[in-house]
C-alpha cells in the first residue's frame, strides 16, 4: 500500500501547492555559504542575519520573487596587480532564498559589522466566520 502524498490527503482541500513548496524549499538550501541565523524577535517578528564580511551594501541585493526572499551577493574582483602568496578569503558570489508564508513582509534591512540583518513581520490574518445557507432541492 502506498502512502498518500501530503497534498493529496482528503482533509487537506486546496493544499496541493504545499508539496511543491516543500520541494522548492529543499532545493533552495544549496551550499552553506554564507552562514545565517533566523531568530524570532517578537510574536510576529523575525530576523534573518547573514554573515557577509567583505561585502558592501552595493554588492548585495534583496528582492522578493514569487513569494521568496532572495538575497544575492556579488563582489567586484579587484585583484589586478596583486600577488597573493596565499588566498584563503574567496571573493565569491552567493544567492540565498527563503520561502515566505502568506502575510510575511520585509520590514527593512541593515548592515552592521559584516552582518546583514533582514527584518520580517507577519500580519495576523483576519478571523472570518461565514454562514452558508442550504438550499432546498
What does this structure look like?
The mean pLDDT is 85. The chain starts with 16 loop residues before the first helix and ends in a 15-residue tail after the last strand. The chain has a domain at 32-122: Immunoglobulin-like. The protein has 1 helix and 7 strands; from the N terminus they run H-E-E-E-E-E-E-E. The chain is mainly beta. Helices cover 9% and strands 34% of the residues. It has a 4-stranded antiparallel sheet, with no helix packed on it. The protein has a 3-stranded antiparallel sheet with strand order 3-4-5.
Q: What is the overall shape?
A: elongated
Biggest beta sheet attributes = 4 strands, antiparallel
CATH architecture call of the domain at 32-122: Sandwich
| Beta-strand residue percentage | 25-35%
Radius of gyration based on Cα positions: 21 Å
Query: In order across it, which strands form the biggest sheet?
Result: 1-2-7-6
Question: Mean pLDDT, as a whole number?
Answer: 85
Order of helices and strands: HEEEEEEE
The proportion of residues forming helix, as a percent range, comes to: under 10%
Count every beta strand, where a strand is a DSSP E run of 2 or more residues: 7
The poorly predicted ranges are: none
- What class do helices, strands and sheet pairing give? mainly beta
Short description:
The protein has a domain of 91 residues: Immunoglobulin-like (Sandwich), CATH 2.60.40.
Task: Walk me through the topology.
Layout lengths: L16 H12 L7 E5 L4 E7 L8 E6 L2 E6 L20 E6 L4 E9 L2 E8 L15
Antiparallel strand pairs: 1-2, 2-7, 3-4, 4-5, 6-7
Amino acid at each position: 500500500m502506498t502512502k498518500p502524498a501530503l497534498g493529496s490527503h482528503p482533509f487537506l482541500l486546496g493544499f496541493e501547492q504545499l508539496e511543491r513548496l516543500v520541494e522548492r524549499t529543499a532545493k533552495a538550501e544549496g551550499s552553506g555559504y554564507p552562514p545565517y541565523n533566523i531568530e524570532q524577535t517578537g510574536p510576529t517578528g523575525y530576523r534573518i542575519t547573514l554573515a557577509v564580511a567583505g561585502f558592501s551594501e552595493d554588492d548585495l541585493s534583496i528582492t522578493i520573487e514569487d513569494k521568496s526572499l532572495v538575497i544575492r551577493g556579488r563582489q567586484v574582483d579587484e585583484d589586478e596587480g596583486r600577488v597573493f602568496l596565499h588566498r584563503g578569503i574567496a571573493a565569491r558570489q552567493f544567492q540565498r532564498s527563503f520561502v515566505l508564508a502568506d502575510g510575511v513582509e520585509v520590514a527593512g534591512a541593515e548592515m552592521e559589522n559584516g552582518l546583514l540583518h533582514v527584518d520580517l513581520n507577519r500580519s495576523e490574518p483576519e478571523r472570518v466566520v461565514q454562514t452558508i445557507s442550504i438550499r432546498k432541492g
